[in-house]
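YM 10:42: Branched chain amino acid ABC transporter permease sequence, as discussed on the call
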Amino acid sequence: MESFSDLGAILLMQGFNGLSVFSVLLLMALGLALIFGQMGVINMAHGEFLAVGAYTTYLFSELTQQYAPGLMPYYFFFAIVAAFVVTFALGWLAEWLMIRHLYRRPLDTLLATWGLSLVIQQALRSIFGPREVSPTLPDWLMGSVQPLEGVDIPINGLFVMSITLVLTCGLLLAMFRSTWGLHVRATVQNRTMSGAVGIDTKRVDRLTFALGCGIAGIAGAAFTTIGSTGPTSGSLYIVDTFLTVVFGGAASLLGTIASAFVIAQTQSVSEFFMTGSMAKVLTLSAVVVILMLRPRGLFSIKVRK
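YM 10:58: structure's back
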């Protein structure tokens, strides 16, 4: 009985670890679902916006520690806002300078954003150096809670999950209960007709791209609570993020949420029984098989061509 109890506790903790991975993966995938699913832009630099958000948080940590140490318990909330603002502005600029000239040319957007990712990586390497860095987290983010005997849940994981929940609900409300969301859905359904009825589709595209990049910046701020940050940290997540969006259904936010949960939990629980590499192979194989049965993903939607 005791061995079964220990196994249950381990599986419960693995499940919670899967929720932590799910939270970061979902934050990344939500931004990419807007850019790729709603706009059809293959943004290979999406991971680098996560890195920019993470470095912004690190910079806030260093500046607060040096010039206003009394604000250390509160700086992280301002760092999250700053990470969003910086990556939103960077995404707005990238769309205006480059992406707006490449719509309906997916291969060109792939190559252009891949080049942008290399530029951002080198800029981060030149500014912050090649070594990985970590911000000094507030004391209230440290430690763990113990709901059951033998089960320790990190507080930083709970915090990341809270951010993810708030942001996901906010994005769903914005998509289905706001004028901007109505314009986005109309543009996806029929761009020509949306322009004919007075919707500024170019402004919708720019705002949507910038918002997707801003969400990636928030994911970067959340990422700093569970891992260190380097110039190439974002590129480690880009494949899993694209996989999540495609698996859920490219234009479905609900599908993105479901696929992020399935992928994170499958990988986390299977890592208990096998190596990390084999767990990733198992997860990828399962996703490929399901996509063979449902090529449009779990939650595909009908759009006008």
